[in-house]
Design a protein that fits this description.
12 helices; alpha/beta; 9-stranded mixed β-sheet; 4-stranded parallel β-sheet
Length: about 350
């Protein structure tokens, strides 16, 4: 997955780049589909729930995974995240230890997930699932983070998160577009779709129109909202920085809470911050007499660096966020998840 998304993935008026790359996208999509069709997945003895997306880039998967863990805990089960640990060097399987691990080892997302529930990092998802089975027992429920295109495990219930503003982009596969496999094929893999963010006048039906013939499951809407009192942002001049797939969502959220962004600093997704980055950001804050603000995912990547990074961490505040389901979405999703867990438990019985 590219670290910077081309703007033309989501701009259908710019035709020549996707046309030029369309044959490569078709090949990529075909290979991704064949990989999934030919897999022999491991069926765990405990339920496996999956959170993913159809496209490369940020849609809100991490907040969705955390919200799903809350639902699972409310059903009397123990959620355990299973992550590949993108950007980290550990192959695993390892249980994430917030005191011992840094993003260099586990990647940034597992550190965020581990704040909400136990988390396991494993490049081989089967090995990770087996570790969870041995360690956490029969009441555990695996939440497979960003696992929709990973064929290692049989999934009992899969959720795709779709960004309401960007949708499916130009409908082509990487590198011609943002899709990680052909859209119709992916739609048949999931039982629920969460449309995340403001639809800007479009309803869910129009967003999902390209897959209405392949998907008949649950559709719910959600939004990302601050998870704490953000009154400290109001009227404050800010230097905002983010190394995530969709930084504009973060900047818009800051401004919606009354923050005045004097300077936006965009880094590659999962960027490992350096002391040089830190010195530049601190200098910008001093020049503008502004506060520094970033995402929680970026903040965990400030740990373990040199003196400048430690200073940056001390001077930076974060905007904690959570995913909020609209209407009856939470209860509807909880009901579907409960049914999936029950089916797995019945299948386990002799």
């Amino acid at each position: 997955m590219p670290l910077h998304e081309p703007a033309w993935w989501y701009d259908t008026s710019r035709q020549w780049p996707p046309r030029l790359l369309a044959p490569f996208g078709a090949l990529y999509g075909r290979l991704a589909e064949l990989r999934l069709r030919r897999a022999s997945p491991y069926t765990a003895s405990i339920p496996v729930l999956c959170v993913g997306n159809f496209t490369a880039g940020g849609t809100g998967k991490t907040p969705m995974a955390i919200a799903l863990a809350q639902i699972v805990r409310g059903l009397g089960r123990e959620p355990v995240f299973l992550s590949r640990g993108y950007g980290g060097r550990l192959r695993g399987p390892d249980i994430v230890d917030l005191e011992r691990h840094t993003h260099a080892g586990t990647g940034d997302e597992p550190l965020l997930l581990a704040r909400a529930a136990a988390a396991v990092v494993a490049r081989d998802r089967r090995q990770g699932a087996e570790l969870i089975e041995r360690t956490f027992g029969p009441k555990a429920v695996i939440i497979m983070d960003d696992g929709l295109q990973n064929p290692a495990l049989t999934k009992d219930f899969s959720i795709a998160v779709v960004d309401a503003k960007r949708g499916f982009g130009n409908g082509l596969c990487i590198p011609a577009g943002p899709l990680r496999a052909p859209l119709g094929f992916q739609a048949a893999l999931v039982q629920a779709i969460v449309i995340n963010g403001a639809t800007e006048g479009r309803d869910a039906g129009s967003i999902l129109a390209p897959i209405t013939d392949r998907f008949s499951g649950l559709v719910i809407q959600s939004r990302i909202a601050p998870d704490a009192n953000m009154s400290w942002l109001k009227g404050k001049k800010l230097i905002a920085f983010a190394g995530i797939a969709n930084p504009e969502r973060f900047f818009s959220l800051v401004e919606s809470q009354g923050g005045i962004i004097a300077e936006r600093n965009v880094f590659a997704d999962h960027h490992s911050f350096t002391d040089a980055d830190a010195a530049r950001l601190i200098a910008a804050a001093d020049a503008h007499e502004a506060r520094l603000v970033t995402t929680e995912k970026d903040f965990v990547r400030l740990k373990g660096g040199g003196a400048a990074l430690r200073t940056l961490a001390e001077r930076t505040r974060t905007v904690p966020v959570s995913l909020i389901f609209e209407g009856t979405g939470r209860s509807e999703l909880s009901g579907r998840v409960a049914a999936a867990i029950l089916r797995r438990e019945r299948a386990r019985q002799p």
